[in-house]
């Protein structure tokens, strides 16, 4: 767009000629909670009706009130400079920098330490627009560059006031903010639906895997079985990394990173592979498709189902299921066993669960047909969750693309 008619180069990049590149301090009153205000007046033990907005309460461009501290209304009234009103922006300026949100209502919020207030001049700046801009990749880049990077990153009020932002005419700011807020509303609704679906699945797992709720048509007695009774438990190994001939072969070699770096039920590929010679010269073992790859070190309890023949390093106690147990049913059971597995973990450098202790873990085991039916229901729930997650990811990508176009003036709404 360089040299394109109607655009100009500024401190924030190339923007339309009728837009300005302005400093936040020229159009906002910027302040923070003073140290003496906190030490003399704040006492979270005296709870009240006013929420003290901390950095952890700012997430994804909006307030998150899952974990709040409150202060009495009188305390807030006694500190008018750091009191928050509808339309004020709040920004974390220490540690996790640049989390920004707009205060949605009056008489409910007050600044907490490490959070700044930006009260904009609404004749020239839309609070919602500025919030979107500061949360954009360009806005976040400016914040990081302006921060003093010491042992803990921090942004001074002086540097915050000196941050540049792109300022279209107010009407265009409001149009941009409205378009982005519509996508935000979609994202928020998908997040809420996804959280509800996950909660429903969690409840279903607790009831179905314990036998508290039986599926129609099933009434048989459940047995108590040890993992070692229903599955072969197999450890892994690592070929010497000094011998090149052991590596870059055709055998998938799984590490805990391959498990924690993926989501979902299945493991489809591994970052590293070994050769037949590497397999022979190590304690790694070939595991058939359908094996449960159970992490036994550090990330104890993380598990995936192998979709192909694979081997692992020594950070696993993998389970090859017998004909008594359906592997997908056992996968869901293991998800509920993580606290029990962690209790059995030993070690000073990192926790590890032994083969013996893994084998001794007891589970409630229904007849095979009921295992299959339970696993199918939970798998259907997983599929619904995955579809929603994909929609959410797409909506976030759409918003990111819109921000890049709208906040640079490549696409004009007015």
What would you say this structure looks like, in words?
By secondary structure, the chain is an alpha+beta fold. It has three domains: 24-167, Adenine-n6-DNA-methyltransferase Taqi, Chain A, domain 2 (Adenine-n6-DNA-methyltransferase TaqI, Chain A, domain 2, Alpha-Beta Complex); 169-200 and 370-414; 223-365, Adenine-n6-DNA-methyltransferase TaqI, Chain A, domain 2 (Alpha-Beta Complex). The chain is 38% helix and 21% strand. The chain is built from 13 helices and 24 strands. The protein has helices at residues 24-27, 35-41, 73-78, 127-135, 137-146, 157-161, 170-208, 227-230, 256-260, 276-280, 327-344, 355-360, 368-406; strands at 7-10, 13-16, 20-23, 28-32, 50-53, 58-59, 62-63, 69-71, 83-84, 89-92, 100-102, 109-111, 115-120, 164-167, 223-226, 231-234, 247-254, 266-267, 272-274, 292-294, 303-306, 311-312, 318-321, 362-365. It has a four-stranded antiparallel β-sheet. Helix 4 packs across helix 7 (170-208) and helix 7 runs antiparallel to helix 13. The longest helix has 39 residues, at 170-208. The two termini are 20 Å apart. The model has no long low-confidence stretch (mean pLDDT 94).
Q: Determine the structural class based on helices, strands and strand pairing.
A: alpha+beta
Strand order of the largest sheet: 4-13-10-11
- The gross shape turns out to be elongated
Q: Total helix count?
A: 13
The name CATH uses for the topology of the largest domain is Adenine-n6-DNA-methyltransferase TaqI, Chain A, domain 2
What is the CA-atom radius of gyration, in angstroms?
Answer: 28 Å
Could you say what the CATH architecture of the largest domain is? Alpha-Beta Complex
Q: Give the oligomeric state of the chains in this entry, treating copies of one chain as homo and distinct chains as hetero.
A: single chain
Number of domains: 3
**Largest beta-sheet characterization:** 4 strands, antiparallel
């Amino acid at each position: 767009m360089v040299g394109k008619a109607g655009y100009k180069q500024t401190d924030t990049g190339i923007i339309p000629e009728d837009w300005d590149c302005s400093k936040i301090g020229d159009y906002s009153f910027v302040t923070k909670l003073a140290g003496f205000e906190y030490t003399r007046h704040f006492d979270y033990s005296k709870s009240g009706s006013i929420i003290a907005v901390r950095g952890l309460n700012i997430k994804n461009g909006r307030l998150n009130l899952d974990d709040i501290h409150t202060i009495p209304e009188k305390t807030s009234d006694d500190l008018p400079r750091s009191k928050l009103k509808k339309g004020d922006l709040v920004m974390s300026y220490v540690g996790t920098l640049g989390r920004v949100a707009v205060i949605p209502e009056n008489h409910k919020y007050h600044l907490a330490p490490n959070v700044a207030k930006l009260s904009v001049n609404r004749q020239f700046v839309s609070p919602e627009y500025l919030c979107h801009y500061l949360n954009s990749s360009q806005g976040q880049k400016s914040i990081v560059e302006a921060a003093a990077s010491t042992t803990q990153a921090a942004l001074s009020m002086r540097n915050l006031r000196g941050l540049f932002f792109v300022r279209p005419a107010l009407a265009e700011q409001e149009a941009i903010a409205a378009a982005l807020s519509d996508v935000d509303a979609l994202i928020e609704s998908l997040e809420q639906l996804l959280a509800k679906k996950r909660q429903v699945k969690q409840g279903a797992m607790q009831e179905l895997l314990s036998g508290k709720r039986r599926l129609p048509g099933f009434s048989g007695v459940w047995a108590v079985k040890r993992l070692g009774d229903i599955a072969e438990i197999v450890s892994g190994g690592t070929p010497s990394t000094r011998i090149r001939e052991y590596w870059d072969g055709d055998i998938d070699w799984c590490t805990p990173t391959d498990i924690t770096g993926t989501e979902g039920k299945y493991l489809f590929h591994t970052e590293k592979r070994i050769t037949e010679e590497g397999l022979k010269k190590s304690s790694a073992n070939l595991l058939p498709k359908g094996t449960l790859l159970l992490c036994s070190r550090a990330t104890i309890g993380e598990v995936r189902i192998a979709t192909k023949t694979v081997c692992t390093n020594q950070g696993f106690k993998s389970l090859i299921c017998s004909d008594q147990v359906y592997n997908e049913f056992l996968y869901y059971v293991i998800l509920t066993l993580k606290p029990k597995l962690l209790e059995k973990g030993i070690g000073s450098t990192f926790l590890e669960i032994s083969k013996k202790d893994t084998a001794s873990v007891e589970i409630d085991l229904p007849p095979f047909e009921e295992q299959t039916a339970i696993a199918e229901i939970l798998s259907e729930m997983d599929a619904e969750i995955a579809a929603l997650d994909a929609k959410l990811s797409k909506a976030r990508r759409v918003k990111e693309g819109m921000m890049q176009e709208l906040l640079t003036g490549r696409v004009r709404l007015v």
